[in-house]
Amino acid sequence: MRTYRLPHSFRIATGLLLVLLCLLAAAGARADSCANSLGRALPENREAALGDEFEVLSWNIQKASNQGWDTDLASLGAGIDLAFIQEASLQAHLDEIIPGPLHRAFARGYTRPGNSTGVMTLSTGAPSGRCQVTAWEPWLGTPKAVSITEHPLRGRDERLLAINVHAVNFELGLDSFSAQFRALGAVLDLHRGPVILAGDLNTWNGGRQALVERFTREHGLASVAFQPDLRTRAFGRALDHIYVRGLASTGARVIPVSSSDHNPLRVRLALN
Hints:
With 272 residues, the protein is an alpha+beta fold. The chain has helices at residues 8-36, 69-76, 175-188, 206-218; strands at 53-60, 82-89, 103-112, 115-123, 129-136, 143-152, 159-166, 195-200, 222-223, 233-234, 237-238, 240-245, 247-254, 265-271. Strand 10 and strand 11 (237-238) form a beta hairpin. The longest helix is centred in the first third of the chain and has 29 residues, at 8-36.
């Protein structure tokens, strides 16, 4: 009997496809687990709950690797209630730089000896629930984490869902990028209440931006507009975004800095 060997390139492609399918299945399982860990009983003591209006900062801090990042963070973070930090270095102790005691929710992404980076959500009050969803850069094989936290609201039974995203970046198509947002959809589907989705979404081409716009529209999220729009751009498209549901922006600005390759976003939001 004659045997045939599949071409080497075909075997490699098949292996990569199987790996991708396994990663997508694992991401779905993590999203379900994340969604199920939220929505639990609210704490009796809600003195530090968010009020009807609050200040939000979103910034890719570029691993706190550039001169002046700490001075800028201290200034930008003054008076904030929530901070969404991407490429946050765990060893930089960001929560100690911003004035006032803050609660830290860190979702670990890339790790190397002596340092871990990921996304960090800082809040004036302790979150009532937290979890994370991890996606993977298909070319680099490195993790991209999303931190998801729930926050009590003063005088309300519902709570705020805060989703801090550093989106998948290095791929030619949209498979991994799309899978990351589908995983977040599983969490949003179960939440009844206001939502903030913020971060570096890596929307550097039309396909990526269209996918994000379709996703946010399906989940009732509206984009916060900035004027003047000084957000960091790649190929002419803004990378950093804040989307909200059940909230209105009463003030939004972009602050140019030299301490990161992304300009931070600062907004004031009011509950509807």
